[in-house]
Amino acid sequence: MEDLLESCFNREIDDDVFANIYEGRVWKTFTDTNGQPFFVKNILKVHIGFALNLDWFNPCKHIQYSVGVIYLILLNLSHYIRFHKENTFIIGIIPGPHEPDVNEIHQYIEPLVDELLQLWAGQVIKSPNYPIGRIYRAALIMIICDMPAARKVINILSFIININLILNNLFVY
Q1: Contact predicate 130/111, CB 8 Å
Q2: Which residues cross the membrane (predicted)?
Q3: Residues 6+ apart with CB under 8 A from 170
Q4: Given Cys at both, which of 56, 131, 132, 151 links 68, Cβ 3.0 to 4.6 Å?
């Protein structure tokens, strides 16, 4: 999996073709807290880009019932395997019968934001290839959903991130 996560850094990128996330402006220009490019090959660190997906579906044929699912996709992976079930992180399943409002969905998104903030700061993860570990950092760079869901998620994320920034700044001496 480590090799697959880093395969995005070994690609030839054509500036005139937009066939994948790697050719887009966000992937090319996204920076870390020091203003350094985030998505670059690094021996000591692995930088991961996530897409947050939120969607509702009707599991029942003859009754109106809506169930939601929140999941993350590893954008570093090739688009051929990116959406395979073994490469998808199911974050939560939102029970029906109706789609939740912004306040209700907050309880599902907030723990995810806390985890993503920890990954943004960096976490040492050991593996067979790196028994002493490597630093993994991650960023949420894309949200994939319909417009009603996007409005809910963006409102929640901006609120939670702003609260975290305020709290972090209160305790910096």
Answers
A1: no
A2: 63-81, 153-172
A3: none
A4: 56
Contacts 24+ apart (CB under 8 A), 79-84: 79/20, 79/21, 81/4
What pTM value is reported for the model? 0.77
Contact 98, 104 (CB under 8 A): no
Q: How large is the greatest C-alpha to C-alpha distance in the chain, in angstroms?
A: 60
Q: Supply the Cα-derived Rg of the chain in whole angstroms.
A: 18
Place of tokens 């992180």: 89
- The residues spanned by each domain of the chain are 2-170
Tokens of 88: 């998808």
Cα gap 20→7, rounded to integer Å: 13
> What's the pLDDT tens digit per position in 97-134?
877 777 777 788 888 888 998 999 999 999 888 899 99
Length of the chain: 173
DSSP E strand stretches across 31-133: 45-57, 67-74, 88-94, 123-125
What the block records as the tokens of 67 is: 């169930």
139 strand-pairing partners? 49
